Amino acid sequence: MSELKPKNHKNAHGTTLSYVIGFVLSLVFTINAYISVVNKSTTGTRLLATILVFAVLQLAVQVFFFLHLGRGPKPLYNVTFFFGTVSLILVVVLGSIFIMNNLHYNMAGTDVIKKLAQDEGIAQVDGKKTGACAAVGTNYKVTIQDGKISPTTTRAQLCDTLTFINEDSGAHKITFGQQQSYAGQEVSVNKSYPKTITLNQPGIYLFQDSVSPTTAGNFTVAP
Amino acid sequence: MVEHSSESHEEAANERVMFGFWVYLMTDLLMFAVLFAVYAVLHDNTVGGPTGRDLFSLPLALAETLILLTSSFTCGLAMIAARAGHKKQVLNWFGLTFILGLSFLGLELKEFTEFIHAGHTISTNAFFSSFFTLVGTHGLHITSGLLWMAITLIYVMKRGLTTHMVRKLTLLSLFWHFLDIVWIFIFTLVYLRAFV
Amino acid sequence: MREFLLGKLNMQALPHEWFTIGGTLAFLTLALVAVIVITKLHRWKWLWNEWFTSVDPKKIGIMYFLVAGFMLLRGGLDAIMIWLQQALSSGSSHGYLSSDHFQQIFTAHGNIMVFFVAMAFIFGLINYIVPLQIGARDLASPFLNTLGFWLFVAGVIMVNMFFLFGGQYAATGWLAVAPLSGIQFSPGVGVDYWIWSLQISGVGTTLAAINFIMTILKMRAPGMTLRKLPLFTWGSLCSMVMAVTVFPLLTMTLFLMFFDRYFGAHFFTTTLGGNAMMYTNLIWMWGHPEVYILMLPSFGVFSEIVSTFSRKATASYFTNVAGMIGVSAFALSVWLHHFFTMGSSADVNAFFGLMTMIIAIPTSVLFFNWIATMYKGKIQFKTPMLWFLGFVGLFAVGGMAGVMLAIPPVDFQLHNSLFLVAHFHTMVVGGVLFGIFAGLSYWFPKIAGFRLNERIGKYAFWCWFIGFLMAFTPLYVLGLMGATRRLDHYGSSTGYQPFFIMAFIGGLVIMAGVVLQIVQILASVMQKRQLADTTGDPWDGRTLEWATASVPPSYNFTVIPEVSSRDAYLLMKQNGLPKSAYEDIHMPRNTAAGIYISAFAFLLGFGFVWHILLLIIVGLLGVIICVIRRTFNEDIEYTLKASEVEELEQERAKKARAKISDTAAGGTDEDMGLIEFIKTALKWVLDVIKNKRWRTW
To answer: Cβ of C505: how many Cβ atoms within 10 Å?
Structure first.
């Protein structure tokens, strides 16, 4: 396709009106996002989604009203490149977050081998016990609501499981005494995403939310 | 055989340059994507130090956002004047854009110097490394844009508003709008997010 | 003050080891010889005006070839050193290289081969051939073209600069994984040279890729829709779109590594919140698409060659293109397969393993296409076709090894073993390099005006093919036996040494192949008259580049052709070639801006390596000022009037007629063989010595 015929470029560049509309819409979205955060109209994931939606809307507004994408001469290669770039940006950013999270979950902690063995349920290697549980016993639930833990005390046996359920909208990061993790497992609980740990070490354990230590409880693991 | 008039030759060349510059802007967006990815992964690594929530001033960030947004708007108005051939209006609107851009930089430098005086530098921890690099890279782009603006306006004053100059201004305005778009996401994912 | 002027440079930085002294002397001698020869022949002005400042993509293409060829020898020397060390070093013997030196060698080998040989040859081919194939006179931006080339040259100089200053290169492997490449574990300048040579040439690559995309999408001849695009151009388009999307990732990752080393940032450090795994993640997001960037133009070359030498149109144009696009699209979704063992969960590994295996599908589509094209065609086994057949054998084997590696549990055994090394060398040598050699021998008549000696070409091919099998089959076996890569010494109880010796002998055979390629070129020059290409179409080609004379004029076509089908030139030949016509042609002026900007960029990079504030300031200011001066320079084109074009064409026609009668007079001897070449060469040397001919040079 050669470009020999002079094209009508008027549409490609926009009028004062289009810039004004774009400007006003962008102002609206910016201020709305700001107010949502400052006034805490929602919290947690919902708030994050809200401000992201405002950002994407403003992106669309600016791309259309300021950059005039899609209104230039055809073929619309720059539109193709734009959407391709956006897809790749999502792959780069979301892909990195997902992969690094996954790596962090597996690799962070003092005893990575033990943790991996625990996750995969590998009880022994080369005749030596790994300390992981071969089979799990009863499951106990601990609920966090309004910053309170119930039940406060749980009595369990070795190789039982303990599930932390968060009913509050904010995240709770559970630390165990002075340590951040229990047997190498970090427990950061969000609403609708309960976390389960396998109790493979006997003892008495205190736990609390690292940000608000009044949210506390304990459990015992009998051998 | 087809005779290429010098006009259509010029137009075809213009189109090519615009498209090529657009592709370059896409590569710049991808560079920012890496910085966003790095910030997302490392921003929690404060090693017990202060987080964004402790340090960022949302009113300052809002001011920066509104200033940059307005400068994007004045830039658009400048381009309308450019295509209409009104040299004086072009200089005025771009002049205003320049001042707004400079104010944005001023506010950003104020924030950076405050952090540095408080002892938080790029080498303090991973959070600060990624914060200073992401926001700083954007600031460097703004600085380059301002430099580009100043020099182009000087040439416009000397050579007048020729088609070549209008093309250069168009590329500059594309760059400026694109920087505002990147800032929307910095505002959202760095500043606002810290308080979510 | 001293720091401002000299940074960290001191007397210790100057060469004082056997290899730094040797390397410095070698380069200086070569440079001296070049300077003397050029001065004696009074060619400085010619070199500057006709070549260095040229924006003609044909000239830039040839310059890319020459630098790439030189770097092929430099990287090949690294390879021989590695082969020799591993053959010698077993049990109580530790070879002749220290561990640290060995590590620097394989790092340099990888960087040079990928960035400064493979990419360079590919950019040379795209530069020369794509405008001709799409019926354009030049690339979209002649300035970006020359800038991209000279930035690449600055990178080449930077990667070799350590011989003179610093004495060490990166010893981290070609991708310099963190935290080994951080300032804590690599405190010397080696990794800094690594960063800046890649950074500078990487910017050149990105600019060139933008240029190529602009050209292919916006400068095609009238009537040439994307569906009629020649397949080499398609391969180049896919490759350059990938390049433009992933090189920014490399640029930014290199900057982050630079910030860690220079400003003490903590992106990839082991302390204060850094995450070294993020580096691996980011660098392979670039690294994997990079190998497909290298491969797709070769796929394009092979598509052209198979069609021409089977004297048949491609079996299915649509699926061929779909295959190329499919490979490009999937290439961006597989990068984790380079670090299956870094610790991600089984489900994440499984996803990326599956995606990797899926890439075999569009690749096979391409293979079946080529085979179907050959089916019932009239196959001519010229040298380009031989390279293709060698590729088919090797790439299939290497590809299957790749599919094996794509299975995470298998990869846990084979990751970073010699099996992996054998796999990727099979792909890069059997795939990319054979494609480059095929393309160069296919288009050589167009580029030089005479074709290459077929006989010696065949010997060279067989040496490469057999040598490669001898050098890398042992490595597959060694990998399966458990040998780890990148080691300069293995215990004697492993029983590895015989394999390494065989690999070394294979390396010698490959070296013989390289020598034969050089001999092939010399022999072709000797028989220039007889091998001359007088028609511009030595292979009875199908695409537009064959419609021009060999060598094409600077403006490529007197008049841009109108295209109405695929294999446009074939249709033109069948319908009768269009009559000559002339029109005014807009040509870009030569410019030295690319050279100046790259020189300042080099100073900037060198300043960063050695922390020399003066050079950093000078470099930065220089780049900015030169860019401003160039972008505001309005006098960048000139017009060739139609009458001038007609005159030039008539001159060329006269010379071509003389060439034809010359060729006829040169006799119809066969291409000379090796023995005849040696005899002729010796005769020439003796003649020069006896008659003291150097006095007349």
So the answer is: 16
